[in-house]
């Protein structure tokens, strides 16, 4: 398997594992992926003012752990940037970037007591960001405090279930 396909498969597995632990369903995005939605996370039943809220996810995977500052840069193709920023979508959208070690053999470690997936995923909403006149990429900042983990996903879905944004 090519490295980029491994990265895609790993990031999907990461999101599915977090969603399962948070008690949400995950559905694949529409094929072909022409709307920058890789997965949809869904709750069942009422979660406030919205029944069965959903969240659309665009996934990216990067090699190497982002060290240092409270944010780290992620270069996004303009198509993905433009697809993730509208405010008039029915289902809110977020970008999730999973960072993995450069050495593929370190991505997963397991024994009888645990399953360890390295490194981590972070999320950001681009909703409402401005139009940019650029034809290639847009650099967005990933907030280190917005970890895509069980508590983070539950918080997102709680806000969406109240009719809010991620």
Structural account:
This protein has 166 residues and is α+β, with helices and mostly antiparallel strands. The protein contains three helices and nine strands, in the order αββββαβββββα. It has one domain: Trna Endonuclease, Chain: A, domain 1, CATH 3.40.1350.10. The strands form three sheets. The protein has a five-stranded mixed sheet with strand order 1-2-3-5-8. Strands 4-9 form a two-stranded antiparallel sheet. The chain has a two-stranded antiparallel ribbon with strand order 6-7. β6 and β7 (115-117) form a beta hairpin. 26% of the residues are buried. The mean pLDDT is 95.
Main sheet attributes: strand count, strand direction, barrel closure: 5 strands, mixed
**How many structural domains in the coordinates?**
1
Overall, the morphology is globular
The poorly predicted ranges are: none
Mean pLDDT: 95
Outline the fold blueprint.
Layout (H helix, E strand, L loop, with lengths): L2 H19 L3 E4 L10 E4 L11 E10 L7 E7 H7 L8 E8 L7 E3 L4 E3 L2 E5 L12 E7 L6 H12 L5
Parallel strand pairs: 3-5
Antiparallel strand pairs: 1-2, 2-3, 4-9, 5-8, 6-7
Notable characteristics:
166 residues, Trna Endonuclease, Chain: A, domain 1
Can you summarize this structure?
The protein is 23% helix and 31% strand. With 166 residues, it is of the alpha+beta class.
């Amino acid at each position: 398997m090519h490295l980029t396909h491994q990265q895609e498969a790993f990031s999907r597995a990461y999101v599915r594992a977090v969603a399962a632990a948070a008690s949400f369903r995950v559905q694949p995005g529409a094929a072909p992926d022409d709307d920058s939605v890789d997965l949809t996370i869904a709750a069942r039943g009422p979660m406030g003012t919205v029944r069965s809220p959903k969240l659309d996810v665009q996934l990216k995977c990067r090699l190497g752990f982002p060290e240092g500052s409270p944010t780290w840069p992620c270069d996004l193709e303009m198509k993905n940037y433009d697809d993730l920023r509208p405010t008039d979508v029915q289902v809110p959208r977020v970008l999730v970037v999973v960072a993995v070690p450069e050495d593929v053999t370190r991505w997963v470690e397991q024994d009888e007591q645990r399953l360890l997936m390295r490194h981590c995923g972070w999320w950001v909403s681009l909703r409402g960001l401005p139009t940019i006149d650029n034809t290639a990429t847009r650099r967005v900042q990933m907030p280190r405090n917005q970890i895509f983990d069980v508590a983070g996903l539950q918080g997102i879905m709680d806000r969406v279930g109240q009719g809010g944004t991620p």
